[in-house]
Amino acid sequence: MIDLLLRDAIExxxxxxxxxxxxxQGYFLGSIFATAQESINxxxxxxYSSKKNKxxxxxxxxxxxxxxxxxxxxxxxxxxxxxxxxxxxxxLAKAKKRFNxxxxxxxxxxxxxxxxxxxxxxxxxxxxxxxxxxxxxDVDAYSGKVVEEKExxxxxxxxxxx
Length: 162
Fold this sequence. Notes:
It is built from 4 helices and 9 strands. The chain has helices at 6-14, 17-24, 88-98, 154-161; strands spanning 28-35, 43-49, 54-60, 64-66, 70-71, 105-115, 118-128, 133-140, 146-153.
């Protein structure tokens, strides 16, 4: 399912001169995102500057490309990959055991999240069903335990926003 392994994408980004420049300007890795329909062949690394409250997206696939600096929606804390024990394929497998149904898309996000008053590194796995219901599972990136589960209707959320 995962064609481009996360560790390979991180290594490719770390060796990129553009990423080295961004990091020298005070940006740090704030989150990682991918979609997995058939497979994952691109990771999006979000680099965040707490001084500027700005974000720069780095797309890692066959090549590395860097997006424009944009205003961040939320403040981020640094994702420390050296402490990461649960890889995306394991988090996805954990979440799939709990999910029943078909999907039109699966999204994976590695980020720091406050759960039960404690900030932890989690994989948020979102299954998007054809009925436009999103089922989300937060998998602790250290222990592999599912620490939170939610279901949201995307249609209801969209209707309220308009």
